């Protein structure tokens, strides 16, 4: 059985595909904003780098040719598989 990975556990530059998002763990406006940026099931992503402070927030996420900053709590709500 394949181990369930969440986006917040990926190593920098490790490529993955989002397989599911727990939208109930996010506020409705946060979910809408993430979807507008293309962060949804099926998106290919990689972590560019993490914040330097406690909690390692924010996470710089590469989605296609775009880099966006998301909070770790958002990344924790996303299940991914390595590609």
Automatic annotation (TrEMBL):
Q: Which Pfam families match?
A: FeoA
Keyword terms: Iron
Name this protein carries in UniProt: Ferrous iron transport protein A
Coiled-coil region: none
| GO MF annotation: an example | transition metal ion binding
- Specify whether Iron is a keyword of the entry: yes
Ferrous iron transporter FeoA-like domain: which residues? 5-82
């Amino acid at each position: 059985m394949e181990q369930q990975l969440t986006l917040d556990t990926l190593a920098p530059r490790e490529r993955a595909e989002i397989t599911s998002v727990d939208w109930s763990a996010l506020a409705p406006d946060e979910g809408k904003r993430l979807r507008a940026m293309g962060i949804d099931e099926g998106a290919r992503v990689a972590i560019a780098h993490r914040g330097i402070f406690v909690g390692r927030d924010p996470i710089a996420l590469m989605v296609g040719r775009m880099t966006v900053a998301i909070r770790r709590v958002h990344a924790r709500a996303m299940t991914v598989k390595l590609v």
